Structure prediction request, 331 residues.
Amino acid sequence: MTENRTPIVPADSVAIATAAKQLCEGSLVAFPTETVYGLGADATNGESVARVFAAKQRPQFNPLIVHVKDTAAAEAAARFNDTARKLADAFWPGPLTLVLPRLDDRISLLVSAGLDTLAVRVPGHPVAQELLAETGVPVAAPSANMAGCISPTAAGHVVFSLPGADTGGPGMILDGGPCTVGIESTVVDLSAAAPILLRPGGITTEDIEAVIGPLAQPSAPNSEVPKSPGMQDRHYAPVLPIRLDATNARPGEAFLGFGPKAPDDAINLSLTADLSEAAANLFSMIRTLDGLPFEAIAVMTVPDQGLGRAINDRLRRAAQPLPTKPKDVCS
Ligand code: TXA
Ligand code: MG
Prediction:
């Protein structure tokens, strides 16, 4: 990847207004959300949306999430039902994405990659909120990283993750500090008869089920038309191999601990075994270890409940072996 000189700009009102102008003129802008940084494009501008796919080297069968400022704007973009309204009332603004039938014809078909559904989300981060209010258009935004690599949870990560403005990347990166949730939104498909959990994420399955009852699991990953095309097995991948359920580091391994039982000298997702803190630290700690001279990263077991489910989902995908390392795209 060529050197990236995209400006990282503290997200004050002037910078947000500039970013909104750039988005409306067709440029890409990276911006913070409470989950991860997004690579935004005006969702009604097909050429801009195409540039998002190109910048990320993202397969065009993998649809994007549209970000809007409030539930009313979401209801203009996609057809809501009672379940969607209940979830929106309970969790928006916040780290939840709803997949619903498309409604707004202005939104580029490329956004939903040929599906007749649209993924919508109202982010809670104040910078994302202000940006969406300024632009007045739905903003398509995948995580601001190369396809298959670790999502960025700080503005500085974006520079290492994407090409610069001169080679198809974002024109600017709005810096809103580190992401507080640190793991992507939960994706729930409400377009079929029963709600389906497509991706565990920042809102726990338990919290969603408390509002709308049981969630079904997605169809098998090898079925011909995956329900969530982005959920390939290998994803969120660092360059180094990951070994799960480790109790100690083997020679050459970095160790990523969880909770008070981890060795004192290990980098720890959360010393107090707090799953929210672990989620917020996950990607940036893996990123740090990935840049050090180790041969692999050994990760301690994280309990598979609450936010731990989303953490384990990302760790399992990151640990999938690859025939060749994604060093050229992810480093
Ligand atoms: O937290 C997040 O969701 C972040 C921030 C930037 O909002 N965005 C994000 O986007 O994680 P991305 O593109 O990295 O992941 C979007 C996921 C993919 O797994 C994609 O396949 C799925 O949402 N998706 C999008 N539209 C869909 C649709 N119409 N039907 C099923 N899955 C969809
Ligand atoms: Mg992503």
